[in-house]
Amino acid sequence: MKLGKRLKKIDAMVTAEYDHIWDCCCDHGLLGAALLARQAAPFIHFVDIVPELMLELENKLDRFYPNIAESNSQWQVHCIDVAALPLPEFNGKHLVIIAGVGGDLMTELVKAIYQKNPKLDIDFLLCPVHHQFTLRSQLIQFDFRLKTETLIIENRRFYEILLVSTPKSSNSSLSTISPTGDLIWQSNTPAQAKIVADYLKKTLDHYKRAQLSRHAEVQYIIDAYSAIAV
Predict the structure, then answer these.
(1) Which residues of 53-86 are buried (b: 16+ CB within 10 A; e: fewer)?
(2) In Å, how far are 68, 128, 169, 184, 221 from 160, measured between CA atoms?
(3) Can you say whether residue 213 is alpha, beta or left, with left for phi > 0 and alpha for psi between -120 and 50 degrees?
(4) Could you give the CA distance from residue 47 to residue 27 in angstroms, rounded to a whole number?
(5) pLDDT of the residue at 78
(6) Of the candidates 28, 214, 12, which has an alpha carbon nearest to the alpha carbon of residue 206?
(7) For the chain, does the N or the C end have fewer beta carbons within 10 angstroms?
């Protein structure tokens, strides 16, 4: 199966500097399979907690990508909670990809992984479904640094994608992370400018509704997004 626009963009943001790539909440493994096919790293790990999915995926990988000694990219399937990734068992630089889950859950997963492995060399490639402000706030609290970020739209849904580094793997040239985003609001085409403007309006409308209907204390978030000039 072909990758959709969102997964294609995530795939394109993966460079060849990692020893282990962890495709978390991998579902049917489409992204990990694409990374495996182009040998994006020596080891590709597929992670999900659903046994039936993992068994089906393992059978397909055995068929199409057998782990042979001559291969430049090996794979392994892990039927575990993402919060329990066995990163210390594997030496080298890690990229943990988490996509397709809400920002609240993603925040908890990143927090669990990082707190268990504060001294490991880890980057995170994150694409939350919502609650991006919550996720970004946690990344800032941990002093993660930004490698790059982008904004896309697929099937009329907006997605922020962030590539970030832990303090252990960061270098001094990397930027701090903005709670509302920085690079995602930049555009160099009329089409991207419209995406940016539409996303900003949608985000502000969401928090204003939350403030009115649930009396949520989000004025500081509204103020932060209102200060963005696009």
Answers:
(1) bbeebbeebeeebeeeeeeebbbbbbbeebbebe
(2) 37, 7, 22, 7, 17
(3) alpha
(4) 8
(5) 97
(6) 214
(7) N
Architecture category of domain 5-176 in CATH: 3-Layer(aba) Sandwich (3.40)
Q: What values do phi and psi take at 31, rounded to 5?
A: -65, -50
Residue 140: CB atoms within 10 A of its CB come to 15
Q: The tokens of 178 are what?
A: 């903005």
- Could you list the mean pLDDT of each consecutive 10-residue stretch along the chain, which spans 230 residues? 90 94 92 95 96 95 88 93 97 96 95 96 96 96 96 96 90 90 96 97 95 87 95
Instruction: Please give the model's pTM, rounded to 2 decimal places.
Output: 0.95
Tally of residues, the chain: 230
Map the chain to HEC letters: CCCCHHHHHHHHCCCCCCCEEEEECCCCCHHHHHHHHCCCCCEEEEEECCHHHHHHHHHHHHHHCCCCCCCCCEEEEEECCHHHCCHHHCCCCEEEEEECCCHHHHHHHHHHHHHHCCCCCEEEEEECCCCHHHHHHHHHHCCCEEEEEEEEEECCEEEEEEEEECCCCCCCCCEECCCCCCHHHCCCCHHHHHHHHHHHHHHHHHHHHHHHHCCCCCHHHHHHHHCCCC
Q: What is the pLDDT of residue 1?
A: 64
Tell me how far apart the alpha carbons of residues 76 and 45 are, in angstroms, rounded to a whole number: 5
* CB distance 110 to 126 below 8 Å: yes
Please answer whether residues 85 and 23 qualify as being in contact, where contact means their C-beta atoms are separated by less than 8 angstroms: no
